[in-house]
Amino acid sequence: MKSKVIFKGVLLSLLFSSVTAFAQDENITLLLHKDTTAAIRRVVQHPYKFRVQVVYTQVRRNSEGKLAFVGSDFRINDDEYFYPATLVKLPIAALALEKINSLHIGGLSKDSYLKVQAPYVSKKEKPVTIRENILRMLVLNDKNAFNRLYDFLGQEYINNRLEQLGYKKTRIIQRFYSGSADDNKITGPYIITDSLGKTLYKGVRITCRKIFYNPIKETKIGTGYMDGKKFVRVAKDFHSSNNFPLSEAHRMLISIIYPDETALENRFNISAEDFEFLKLALGSYPREAGIVEWLNDEKDL
User: Fold this and answer.
1) 181 in any annotated domain
2) How far apart are CA 103 and CA 122, in angstroms?
3) Does 10 score more than 80 pLDDT?
4) d(CA 102, CA 109)
5) Structural domain includes residue 215
6) Which burial class, exposed, middle or buried, applies to 204 when counting CB atoms under 10 A from its CB (0-12, 13-18, 19+)?
7) Do 63 and 94 lie in a common domain?
8) SS3 letters for 115-130?
9) Is residue 63 classed exposed, middle or buried when 0-12, 13-18 and 19+ CB atoms within 10 A define those classes?
10) In whole angstroms, what is the distance from residue 85 CA to residue 66 CA?
């Protein structure tokens, strides 16, 4: 069975399909060079100019039902920086589910309501369940939902746990619409309640004690960038920005789609139900996510 498109609107594609999609003896480099689309040909002919990276995995199943993963890639380079943008929402979603389970608090679940009380958050903002924050992140690309879960987790927790799982070069060290590097080190406070408003857990304001930074040596990219409405004619420095190498992002995606094929030490510590929830969120259209307001406003999405 072919999988749905996993990420929508991602600049660098994670190609993840069944073996029926292409001939078994073809790899991604050959496929790209065979593509006659004008845009693809232009990028493939000037890969260093466009800094393109592609990773592709075929999932094969033998007659006994055992899976094998056959990968190929085009210009994968963990030391060539690209801004990961929305890709960082996947690990934050999985880590949020992990943290809920690790707290071992009766009544606390992904259906509990999270309210961040940090100074930059409007007091009028209504609490939203952790489930809905994850859906808003993965289905609608909601950056505020990401920011709430970033505060729930904390910078130190996020990066220590990702390193434990084997993601050595991944760093998630900034919110969207973020302030300074120092601002991003501070998370919380927040409160988690049940549907009746009863407090289940309070998270205090935390300042990350460790220094996390983008591990890529060359983080100055391009010839200019926009600062508000002003164009600044110097390379953009991503030293204090998120980093998520495509190879690690792809490995994480496989670990979520096929957790039983991933070693325990590299697998998120979440339930089978949570894995299914993540897969559903990754492959859903807004109308399929079960949120009433999205059904009512579907024509505007």
Assistant:
1) yes
2) 27
3) no
4) 11
5) no
6) exposed
7) no
8) EECCCCCCCCCCCEEH
9) exposed
10) 35
Tokens representing 223 are 């010839």
φ and ψ of 208, to 5 deg: -60, 130
Q: Which amino acid, one-letter code, is at 279?
A: K
Instruction: Based on the fold, state whether residues 58 and 193 are members of the same structural domain.
Output: no
Write out pLDDT tens, residues 253-296.
999 999 999 999 999 999 999 999 999 999 988 888 877 666 66
Q: Are 43 and 37 in contact (CB under 8 A)?
A: no
Q: Determine the structural domain holding residue 198 and report its residue range.
A: 85-209+265-296
Residues 60 and 144 in one domain: no
Number of separate domains in the chain = 2
Are residue 62 and residue 183 in the same domain, yes or no?
no
Question: Which CATH number goes with the domain that contains 159?
Answer: 3.40.710.10
Within a domain: residue 39? yes
153 with 273, same domain: the answer is: yes
In this structure, the answer to whether residues 159 and 287 fall within a common structural domain is: yes
The answer to whether residue 250 sits within a structural domain is no
Average pLDDT of the residues of the chain? 88
Say yes or no to pLDDT of 72 above 60.
Answer: yes
| pLDDT tens by residue, 180-204 | 999 999 999 999 999 999 999 999 9
Listed residue (233, 223, 214, 112) closest to 170, CA to CA: 214
Q: Mind listing the pLDDT tens digit for each residue in 147-160?
A: 999 999 999 999 99
Mean pLDDT to the nearest integer, 32-50: 90
- Among residues 52, 74, 96, the one where a domain terminates is 74
**pLDDT given at position 12:** 40
- CA nearest 80: which of 240, 214, 180? 214
Both tokens assigned to 41: 């040909």
Residue 297 is predicted with a pLDDT of 55
- The whole-number pLDDT of residue 295 equals 62
On whether both 135 and 174 belong to a single domain, the answer is yes
Q: Which residue has the higher pLDDT, 21 or 248?
A: 248
Report which DSSP code applies to 262: S
